[in-house]
Specification:
Blueprint lengths: L5 E3 L2 E3 L2 H11 L4 E8 L4 E9 L9 E9 L3 H18 L11 H27 L4 H10 L2 H19 L2
Antiparallel strand pairs: 1-2, 3-4, 4-5
Helix pairs in contact: 1-2, 3-5
């Protein structure tokens, strides 16, 4: 049985529920235990322990953890699912080797996008702060390739302005 996947921003991802189904089919004598620990700061630490065969003391085993804010029932369930997903990933139950949950992957992709946008804003400001062609060349040389791909038009307009000044 192949694990069902979804497209997560161009990347195939197997959701925890589907990896869990595959684990259960492959390991009918498997064991999944989860333990929440309520932290003094109000967060919850979840530990998930998965054993492929509970009657075999040499069976493959993995542990996954998640830590997050206790914001009610759904966050509790989400943290448990994340811990189980990590343990499943460590046992090889992932479509592409990813251990993170789909929520974590989406949050990471959002973070990457926001970080990229902020970097472009910062680099735009650096270019706009230049006062002459030499400063423009120096700043341009220091920019990451990703920024250069986006800001080429700004560089060219500043270059024309400085050459005509």
């Amino acid at each position: 049985m192949k694990t069902k996947t979804i497209d997560l921003k161009g990347k195939e991802y197997a959701q925890v529920k589907d990896r869990l189904n595959k684990f259960r089919v492959d390991n009918p004598n498997g064991l999944i235990e989860t333990t929440p620990t309520f932290q003094p700061d109000g967060t919850i630490l979840f530990k998930a322990r998965i054993l492929k065969n509970k009657s075999d003391e040499t069976s493959a085993e993995a542990t996954g953890h998640s830590l997050g804010a206790n914001k009610g029932e759904k966050s509790f369930e989400k943290l448990e699912t994340i811990a189980v997903g990590r343990a499943l990933g460590l046992l090889g139950y992932a479509s592409d080797g990813e251990i993170a949950s789909s929520d974590e992957m989406e949050e990471f992709l959002t973070y990457q996008t926001e970080r990229r946008e902020q970097m472009i804003l910062d680099m735009t400001a650096k270019l706009n702060e230049t006062k002459n062609l030499d400063e423009l060349k120096t700043v341009w040389a220091s920019l990451p390739v990703e920024a250069k791909a986006v800001l080429g038009g700004l560089k060219e307009s500043l270059k024309v302005r400085y050459e005509n000044a």
